[in-house]
Amino acid sequence: MGKARIKCERIDQKMNKEMTSKFFEALTDLEKENNIGSDILIEKIKSGIEKAIKKDYPYCENIRVDIDPVTGKLDIRILKEVMDVMYVDDPDNEIFLDEAKVYDPNIKVGDMVEIPLDPAKFGRVAAQNAKQSIKHDIKDFERARLIEQYHDKEHECVSATVQKVEPATQNAILTIDKNEVYLVRNEQIPGETLKAGDIVKVYVVGIANPDRKPSIKISRTHRELVKRLFELEVPEIADGTVEVKAISRVAGARSKIAVYSKDPNVDAVGACIGPRKSRITSVVNELKGEKIDVINWCEDPAQFIAKALAPAEVINVVLSEEEGVRECRVTVPDNQLSLAIGNKGQNAKLAAGLTGYKIDIVSESSAKAEAADDEN
Fold first, then answer.
1. What is the mean pLDDT of residues 362-370?
2. What is the pLDDT, as a whole number, of residue 199?
3. What is the DSSP letter of 276?
């Protein structure tokens, strides 16, 4: 019996010497790589090892895994109840007293004896199961952590640092709170060239595939980015005095933003432009020179459409609605027609996006000619 106990102790010592140092080195690496607290990571690893043991000991009810990174101790044991009969009913969970004394000479009937596991008994398959289980648990934790971390940032504007731009695709890898996030090329502002080290503002559109492999979708072309940037620059918007009513955007070219002041003493447009255009200039610079028109929102649709077509002058607006589609016919001076339509129809497109109306723009002379034809 004494020789058996000595053999058991040697197995235990061998396990600690051969496995412990490498195990805790791997534990430290996992903690750094995954940015997971050691306490949480240890619980995940314990669970993974217990699942692996269950593969070899499926009917064992009591397994104990102790991991102490402070003392560098890794202890894996099976617990069995000590019985006073040689042939126990449940050998997976019960053990005869004389056999139990190999592990603890002072053990008594009714006690739970702790049997250290020989790492060799795990085998390569069991070790692989433990590894896969731990990786799966860590992925689950990372998914939950990512969703929790970005839940409050969803639909917000955040700062991100450019780490790398892929030459072939021009997709950029950015870091936000130590997490790498892809900014794909079609979500970058047309014409901008990102470089490693650049700090840019991005709009967090949302979390894709939250139940499987979550990823953060960010954008620099989203129209809401314009609103969030003005909130950062204009205190009156941040505190609710000035409200952003509508935004229309052609990223990299031009945006229109309609604002309204709840306080009659506050000029909504002036607040957005700022002293010496300082506030709007900050937004324009962040958007790489994108032009921004700020207009006063008004409740009357005709007046709002006229304002939305600025800088063009408007003579008349006629509203109509057919089959749920809101339309309007806008008359402008002859010399203002190209300005109202804009380059490649951009001004008219932005005004339509801002107001929600399909806009048909005609010159004053054309309108008069049509009116004369109708009379005849």
1. 92
2. 96
3. G
What distance in Å separates the CA atoms of residue 367 and residue 294, rounded to the nearest whole number? 29
| The token pair that represents 230 in the structure block | 């003005």
DSSP E strand boundaries for the chain: 63-68, 73-83, 94-96, 112-116, 157-165, 172-176, 179-183, 199-208, 215-219, 242-250, 254-261, 291-296, 316-322, 325-332, 358-363
SS3 track for 213-259: CCEEEEECCCHHHHHHHHHHHCHHHHCCCEEEEEEEEECCCEEEEEE
As a whole number of angstroms, the distance between CA 18 and CA 348 comes to 74
Closest Cα to residue 351, out of 319, 315, 307, 318? 307
Helices 301-308 + 346-355 axis angle, to 10: 150
Question: Phi and psi of 192, rounded to 5°?
Answer: -80, 145
DSSP state of 335: G
Q: Residue 259 — very low, low, confident or very high, per pLDDT cuts 50/70/90?
A: very high
Does 48 have pLDDT greater than 70?
A: yes
Residue with tokens 């190999």: 102
Q: Which residues sit opposite 94 in a β-bridge?
A: 81
Q: Which residues, at least 6 apart from 163, have a Cβ–Cβ distance to it below 8 Å?
A: 172, 173, 174, 175, 180, 196
Closest CA to 102 of 117, 113, 118, 91: 113
Distance CA 222, CA 346 (A): 17
Burial of 192 (0-12, 13-18, 19+ CB in 10 A): middle
Q: What confidence tens digit (pLDDT) does each residue in 146-172 have?
A: 677 777 888 899 999 999 999 999 999
Check residue 2 and give its pLDDT: 47
pLDDT band for position 4 (cuts 50, 70, 90): very low
Tokens 């139940």 locate to 211
Indicate if the alpha-carbon torsion angle 185, 188, 192, 198 is positive or negative. Answer: negative
User: Rounded distance, CA 93 to CA 76, Å?
Assistant: 16
* β-strand pairing of 358-363 with 73-83: unpaired
Structure confidence at residue 11 (pLDDT): 42
Of 171, 191, 204, whose CA–CA distance to 289 is shortest? 191
pTM comes to 0.66
Distance (Å, whole) CA 56 – CA 43:
21
Measured CA to CA, the distance from residue 320 to residue 36 in angstroms comes to 60
